[in-house]
User: Fold this.
Amino acid sequence: MLEIKHLRKSFGSLVAVDDVSFVVNAGQLVGLLGPNGAGKTTTVSMIAGLLTPDHGEVLVGGQRLAGDTDPAKRRIGLVPQDLALYDELTARDNLRFFGALYNLTGRALDEAIGAAMHLVELSDRIKDRVKTFSGGMKRRLNLAAGLLHDPDILLLDEPTVGVDPQSRNAIFDNLETLKRRGKALLYTTHYMEEAERLADRIVVIDHGKVVADDTVAGLQSRVAPVEDIGGVRANLETVFLTLTGRSLRD
Ligand SMILES: Nc1ncnc2c1ncn2[C@@H]1O[C@H](COP(=O)(O)OP(=O)(O)OP(=O)(O)O)[C@@H](O)[C@H]1O
Ligand SMILES: [Mg+2]
Assistant:
């Protein structure tokens, strides 16, 4: 469903994303892991068309995305790392705004808003201003905004930051539902247990480069001979630290 090939992006002399390639199939969730500054958001932004790559290409359903006006861009939804919500507007008006960006109007828009709000369990707060929402509710509304136009591919950039276990589990349930509906999900997180629970494959990037692309079990078995203590499989955090080192990044 989503294929990225040899993506590269520099900011001045810094190569933020350096020859990154991977695939996300329909009905699959791929975890994109990496330390702070590894290049995750830059990669996601290039896939979403917010940043132009210096090199490489993004393919949706086998077709190369041809710039900003390509209708295939509609097949992609973005749940950004920084909340993109208007505090003074109600939840419904926020979603109306996002729907308008995708040319959704009238009944189609109202139905899409109803379905998205139902999925994230915010139907009863639809008329309330976002400034009255908790952190978890804002994150769930942010998710609703990203999937309003029913994209085939959903890019989720740290969607559970600052969220309590209840909202987090609600978000996980939403993602499982979307997977079952055949969506391709790309999910960045710093929470290893989330990746372990949700991801069909994991891509680890560091300093802009892919350092691993494997299943959780595959990653664990790579590191196990060195890191295993008493025959217990290395957990994903141990694998992650082995792949990316222990030095601080910012
Ligand atoms: N617009 C920009 N101008 C200059 N440098 C940038 C810009 N955006 C990102 N960078 C740099 O590119 C590198 C990759 O940043 P990016 O935001 O993609 O990392 P990340 O993996 O998402 O990190 P985090 O986990 O902290 O969100 C970092 O060194 C960052 O400082
Ligand atoms: Mg980021």
User: Anything to note?
Assistant: Residues 40-41, 81, 157 surround magnesium ion (ligand 2) (CB under 6 Å).
